[in-house]
From TrEMBL:
<comment type="subunit">
    <text>Homodimer.</text>
</comment>
<keyword id="KW-0664">Pyridoxine biosynthesis</keyword>
<dbReference type="InterPro" id="IPR037510">
    <property type="entry name" value="PdxA"/>
</dbReference>
<dbReference type="GO" id="GO:0050570">
    <property type="term" value="F:4-hydroxythreonine-4-phosphate dehydrogenase activity"/>
</dbReference>
<keyword id="KW-0862">Zinc</keyword>
<keyword id="KW-0479">Metal-binding</keyword>
<feature type="binding site">
    <location>
        <position position="272"/>
    </location>
    <ligand>
        <name>a divalent metal cation</name>
    </ligand>
</feature>
<keyword id="KW-0170">Cobalt</keyword>
<dbReference type="GO" id="GO:0042823">
    <property type="term" value="P:pyridoxal phosphate biosynthetic process"/>
</dbReference>
<dbReference type="GO" id="GO:0051287">
    <property type="term" value="F:NAD binding"/>
</dbReference>
<feature type="binding site">
    <location>
        <position position="142"/>
    </location>
    <ligand>
        <name>substrate</name>
    </ligand>
</feature>
<feature type="binding site">
    <location>
        <position position="143"/>
    </location>
    <ligand>
        <name>substrate</name>
    </ligand>
</feature>
<dbReference type="GO" id="GO:0000287">
    <property type="term" value="F:magnesium ion binding"/>
</dbReference>
<dbReference type="GO" id="GO:0008270">
    <property type="term" value="F:zinc ion binding"/>
</dbReference>
<dbReference type="GO" id="GO:0050897">
    <property type="term" value="F:cobalt ion binding"/>
</dbReference>
<keyword id="KW-0520">NAD</keyword>
<feature type="binding site">
    <location>
        <position position="289"/>
    </location>
    <ligand>
        <name>substrate</name>
    </ligand>
</feature>
Length: 339
């Protein structure tokens, strides 16, 4: 299956993507330069960050407004809305003094996207502790912050790659806490947001969604747990009655081989590792973090700040390249649907 990450031809007047600077002490400037070098205007974008820091890794062009970030300009240099850092960044050593600018870059990217001046937000990785220490950041991560900025109660995390799309229902909680957290309301909301995202952002008018069970062998008729019978199956039956194309609850150990993946467009999984292990095993470098349910497009590379290799010229921009490509595709899908 395709992830939907091919770069579409830029339509007339299509706004460029807003790329946030992420943590200046990590690999963000390196992968931004690497992604620009690979794409060279195939997906017009601009960086919100410190132009001098970015220029250490490749050619940049300061711009005064997103509208200047044309494909023609992007073919020659990375356009940058210059937002100066408080202190010079040191590789691998996060500086809380720079945290306010990092947070402001995210806020600006969202504001520009909501105003139609950016086609979507592509976020580079952040260090949450540096943001806590330096900016009083009050969120567990990017996703929750973006949801708060958008006024969305519960966005949904998708990991998308060339061969698989997965959505975990429960995310960063202990495995022992999953059964209690897995409520019918949470499962139904996750499936609804996933379905709507596949329609709106991936241009799939009738998406096919496979849903895992929680227990081995999907509970084996109750012998290994009753969550499939008491929680998952009733939700699926109710949504099927509304016209949703749903398969499941299915044993997770047989859902991710090639023939099985051909039968669905996305897999909704019950917990973090159940979703993320198969996609990372299939193609670790090209996975993209997508936030569904927001009023704007948001993607991100599926890795962190990589302090251990920052400044050494070892950073691989592949995941950011894929995040940009997917954001461009999603933006085009929304424009085509009049969203």
């Amino acid at each position: 299956m395709s992830s939907g990450a091919e770069v579409p031809a830029a339509g007339a007047g299509a706004p460029p993507l807003a790329l946030t600077c992420g943590d200046p002490a990590g690999i963000c400037a390196e992968i931004a330069a690497g992604a620009w070098s690979r794409l060279r205007g195939a997906a017009p974008l601009f960086l919100i960050g410190d132009a001098d820091h970015a220029a250490a890794h490749g050619p940049v062009q300061r711009i005064a407004a997103p509208e200047e970030a044309t494909a023609e300009l992007c073919a020659h240099a990375l356009p940058v809305l210059h937002r100066p850092l408080a202190v010079p960044p040191l590789p691998g050593r996060p500086a809380p003094e720079n945290a306010p600018m990092v947070v402001a870059a995210i806020e600006e990217a969202v504001a520009l996207s909501r105003a139609g001046r950016a086609g979507g937000v592509v976020t580079c990785p952040i260090n949450k502790k540096a943001l806590y220490d330096g900016a009083g950041f009050a969120f567990p991560g990017h996703t929750e912050f973006l949801a708060d900025l958008a006024g969305v109660a519960r966005p949904v995390m998708m990991l998308a790659g060339p061969q698989l799309r997965v959505v975990p229902v429960t995310i960063h909680i202990a495995l022992a806490a999953v059964p209690a957290a897995l409520t019918p309301a949470l499962l139904e909301e996750t499936i609804r947001v996933t379905h709507a995202g596949l329609v709106q952002d991936f241009a799939l008018p009738s998406p096919r969604i496979a849903v895992t069970g929680l227990n081995p062998h999907a509970g084996e008729g109750g012998a290994m747990g009753r969550e499939e019978i008491e929680v998952i199956a009733p939700v699926l039956e109710r949504l099927r009655a509304e016209g949703f194309d749903l398969a499941g609850p299915l044993p997770a150990d047989t859902m991710f081989h090639e023939r099985a993946r051909a039968r669905y467009d996305a897999a909704v999984c019950m917990y973090h590792d159940q979703a993320l292990i198969p996609i990372k095993a299939l193609d670790f470098d090209r996975g993209v973090n997508v936030t569904l349910g927001l009023p704007f497009v948001r993607t991100s590379p599926d890795h962190g700040t990589a302090y251990d290799i920052a400044g050494q010229g070892l950073a691989d921009p592949t995941s950011l390249v894929e995040a940009i490509r997917l954001a461009a595709s999603m933006s085009a899908a929304r424009m085509g649907a009049g969203a």
